[in-house]
Amino acid sequence: MAIDIVTSASFVPASEILSQTVEAILETVVAANDVLFKKDSFKELATYLERIVPVLKELNRKYISNSESLNSAIQILNREIKAAKQLTLECSTKSKVYLLMNSRGIVKRLEDTAREISRALSLLPLTSLELSSGIVVEIGNLCDSMQQAEFKAAIGEEEILEKIETGIQERNADRSYANNLLVLIAEAVGIPTERSALKKEFEDFKSEIENVRLRKDKAEAIQMDQIIALLGRADAASSPKEKEMKYFTKRKSLGSQPLEPLQSFYCPITRDVMVDPVETSSGQTFERSAIEKWFTEGNNLCPLTMTPLDTSILRPNKTLRQSIEEWKDRNTMITIASMKPNLTSGNEEEVLHCLGQLKDLCERDLHREWVILENYIPDLIQLLGGKNRDIRNRVLVMLHILTKDNDDAKDRVAKVDNAIESVVRSLGRRIDERRLAVALLLELSKYNLLRDSIGKVQGCILLLVTMANGDDIQAARDAEEILENLSFSDQNIIQMARANYFKHLLQRLSTESRDCIFREHFDQIKYLKNPGPEDVKLVMATTLAEMELTDHNKVVLLEGGALDPLLDWISQGDIQMKSVAVKALRNLSSVPKNGLQMIKGGAARALVDLLRISTPSPSLREQVAATIKHLAVSTMSQESKETPVSLLESDEDIFMLFSLINLTGPEVQQNILQIFQALCQSPFAANIKTKLTQCSAIQVLVQLCERDIENVRPNAVKLFCCLVNDGDEATILEHVHQRCLETLLRIIQSSNDEEEVASAVGIISNLPENAQITQWLVDAGAIPIIFQLLCNGRQNDSHRSQLVENAVGAICRFTAPTNLEWQKRAAEAGVIPILVHLLYLGTTMTKNHAATSLSRFSLSSRELSRPIPKHKGFWCFSAPPETSCQVHGGICSVESSFCLVEAEAVRPLVMVLEESDPGVCEASLDALLTLIEGERLQSGIKVLAEANAITPMIKFLSSPSLRLQEKALHALERIFRLPEFKQKYGPSAQMPLVDLTQRGNSSMKSLSARILAHLNVLHDQSSYF
């Protein structure tokens, strides 16, 4: 330890002083690390001191004899090093607030010390000492640096000191001013701004002042007393109990009656009590505004003494002004204490008057403090339960005035039963009351205890969210800020999410956001036990997974950034985190728009990889499969103008996913089957079907169809139906055998799932038209089974349209004209009338299938039409002759010859020609044209003409469908052979035919020209076409 200042080199050797100085420097450098204030300045000083140590050591080594100049320089250096050490130790132990108040003095002492040390170094007799050139240069540099060193108070410190000086000089600083000042001080010296920390620091500061008094530094003591008086007005400077005791002690000493003002308080000009009294050059005092007006009017004599005045001299009469304010404060204190009974009188007019008076009295912060100490707050809150809207509105205003920036007032609110509930009720009332209530709640939400209570009031958060989305801009801003303040609580955030306000839930899903929130609110919520970020995210993700959300809200959540943190969990979290994240994604992915966005964001890859790995949790695998199913369904809704999004990136993914059907339980199997059902209806359906065929999917599906596993078999049947439609014929024939067909028929008869039945019938409908398969179906009784479906599905029911469509398609395979036996069985079952009926009611595809079936039936009609028997015996004794068919010439019936005329199918088929779909028009046209095949052309054409079928055929000449054009041309070429029909319909066909001769293909040009020749438009020998 260095000794005290050395006063004489004659008593202590210079070498010893040098050693002590080095030791003091080292101690000062160490102490500089512990200073509580101006750390950077002390660090700079310590850097200079460290550079001196090598110089002193060199001096000590080189020093030989005593020199008066050298000893003098060493003494100064030792003294200043000691002063630097002393200052450093003071700044390591004293109150931070005290140090701030003395920041200017500290800065000056630092500068003085640096300059004195520089001077001491410059006094060293370098020429007489044999020092190295490096040391000499270093001493010179040190002298220059320390001489020029500037230690300044920070801008924030200067602003605080200026605010303190202003508050002391003007004597009008109130509680709010002191509160703000104390917070600035706390932030400047690095202490928490919560009340307990501020009070402790303030008490330490006051203790430091006692030490100043003990040192008998009167000037500093007076200055510090003024600062304490200023800061003492802050809430944290004293406890609520101390304030209350001080207030009531003063109030009891005043009596109960207001005092009349002294005569000196009145302005001689206005005869009113003065507000801003000023003294003129004559020594008289007037109200500033009154005397200034007197001067403005051209008067320069004193209104009282009529002596000349210097109009430039108006001195504030601070003493009188203070006396007037003290008199006003005394009367105000008595008034506030006496008004309380009026507030609880029950007389509405009296209550309103009292509330108005209170508001007027609360213009000054001090008076607001007195209203609080008189305990008005419980009575005000009780008035919120009344029916008078004006009273409630004024109470809300008063409570807002009292609680603004006042923790004591908020604490009193917290102690009143159902206080927050009373305020929240006003949120649901008229707009003016609602606006006042939300402004009050915003102020209350800044206080820990009340913030916790606000979120627990039933319906409060829902009302706030509603207001935050409302049209009242200020109320919406206040409501949103309250929600921000309430977001410290996870339960509050969950309530917000249930009210469709997801901002804070999305923030909590991110660790970074969570940390920011904790830093922002640390001072306010550190009394709570904060869960770790991962626990918080788990709560938020669980909420997201379990919440019932509208489609709109699901979209909002995904657009708000929910996807990335959930995918992070899937890739990096433990089993519990993965499970919750997948459930949340499943919830959000049920909206197709979200599903596509998730695929683009990498969700499909993460989920497929998760499904690929072996996991100890079957439920997790089920959730993953269900989520992938949602993503697959979303690919069905893609618009053609957009670049299609693919769920499965590679063939390996397709094979792997389908292979899991044999490795997983029914729940996962069901979802995998549904995934591929959806993909078979996506833009990538062709590729998916091809890859499934390559991995023997049809064989697997046939096996699953034969097993009666709930929810698995129906989905296997549905996927089977997708693959059979336009599937590879060889592969289908390889795996579809008689047992499979019997299984499908059994499903059709026994299943209660209409979609499964429709798919089973769809499989039969789409199977290749193989004779063996059709015969197996006939032998298994398929015709009556499918016919029964048509009978049950005749009504125009949208839920059964697909079933009927597939059933008509299945019937079609039994109408092949190459097998009369199948046709007869179908006709005998009553199929033909049903087909005719469906031409009126069915879907486009149903009509197509029905028309195709009728066409195929009709191709056999001429052969099956029974000749009319020859008449035998006498006419008068014989039965009436049977009527011959107008088209086929023989005896026809629906069941025996499948005649379209007898089935009354012609007009429905003509009606179908008006459909917009070219395919169904073509099928209907094919059926109608069977009536003009063969020898009975004229009779068939007549039937078509009577049914108005020829006009649609002419329209088909302009159809965009080439097939329809060609078929119509061939039909008209035959029809126009007959003069009767050529004359009637030829003119309307002429222009379309001419157009075809110019725009059609070569065959159509030639045929069109031939018809035009029939119509005498072209020469029949023309070879131009």
Automatic annotation (TrEMBL):
- What name goes with this protein? RING-type E3 ubiquitin transferase
State which pathway it belongs to. Protein modification; protein ubiquitination
Q: Where is the U-box domain?
A: 260-334
- CDD domains annotated for this entry? MLKL_NTD (cd21037), RING-Ubox_PUB (cd16664)
Reaction(s) the record says it catalyses: S-ubiquitinyl-[E2 ubiquitin-conjugating enzyme]-L-cysteine + [acceptor protein]-L-lysine = [E2 ubiquitin-conjugating enzyme]-L-cysteine + N(6)-ubiquitinyl-[acceptor protein]-L-lysine
- Matching Pfam families: U-box
- What EC number(s) does this enzyme carry? 2.3.2.27
